[in-house]
Specification:
- This protein is of the alpha/beta class.
- It has two domains: about 90 residues, 3-Layer(aba) Sandwich (Rossmann fold); about 130 residues, UDP N-Acetylglucosamine Acyltransferase, domain 1 (3 Solenoid).
- Helices cover about 15% and strands about 25% of the residues.
- The protein is built from three helices and 23 strands.
- The radius of gyration is 18 Å and the shape is globular.
- The termini are far apart.
């Protein structure tokens, strides 16, 4: 029997997690979010039951499972900071986390899915793959075998990752991006994507990506135009 879930943080996209809870028969207790507690009794159709500074996590630890509902967007720098603060709360109070796996996804038995993860509709996680805590594999994204995805990674819709790749922590991969083994990666391993990297939409990556690097076709002082020929 599932313990009721408390979402830490919210957004309009919380509906996708609520939907998985409904499909899985997982009860939801409400939302903890200081941005709404005291200002709104209801958010996303759920009661707002506290804020980060008012909710008694010690007392609630054995009553609920928790899930970070706060998204992370490169367009809103505060969102990543707030999301990491929720993860810190989970670690500090040693809270149990719900893992939300859509029933229409394909997750192999040999895959290791960390606590607090989300696996979306039509997503595929192959055998001997490891997904770190609080990572999200969104709809129709495929992670091939023997790949490691670190903690708090966001893999948006229609991402494809080849086998034997290594994704660091806090990596943001936008929709329709492909990480592809090529050349020296074909047999030995797939590309390594360093922690805190960001891969923009509709890019095919066939090389290692440095920690903190932004891979983009847009260029600019803090970005590299992908490829060996043109780089800023």
């Amino acid at each position: 029997m599932h313990k009721p879930i408390v979402f830490l943080g919210t957004s309009i996209n919380l509906e996708i997690f609520i939907r998985v809870c409904t499909l899985r028969g997982m009860p939801v207790a409400g939302i903890v979010d200081s941005d709404f507690y005291g200002n709104s009794e209801i958010r996303n159709g759920l009661p707002v039951i506290g804020g980060e500074d008012t909710f008694d996590f010690e007392a609630a630890r054995d009553q609920y499972d928790f899930f970070v509902g706060m998204p992370w967007s490169s367009l809103d720098p505060r969102s990543k900071t707030k999301r990491l603060a929720y993860i810190d709360l989970i670690d500090r109070y040693q809270l149990d986390c719900a893992t939300l796996i859509h029933p229409n996804s394909e997750v192999y038995d040999e895959a290791e899915i960390g606590p607090g993860c989300y696996i979306g509709f039509n997503a595929g996680v192959a055998h001997y793959t490891k997904i770190g805590a609080h990572s999200r594999i969104h709809n129709s994204t495929i992670v091939a075998h023997h790949t490691t995805v670190g903690k708090n990674c966001i893999l948006h819709e229609y991402v494809k990752i080849c086998s034997k790749s290594i994704i660091g922590d806090n990596v943001l991969i936008h929709p329709d991006t492909t990480i592809l083994g090529y050349g020296k990666f074909n047999n030995e391993r797939g590309p390594n994507i360093g922690s805190n990297a960001e891969l923009h939409p509709r890019i095919t990556v066939t090389r290692d990506v440095e920690p903190g690097e932004i891979v983009s076709m847009a260029g600019g002082n803090n970005r590299r135009i992908y490829g060996e020929v043109i780089r800023s």
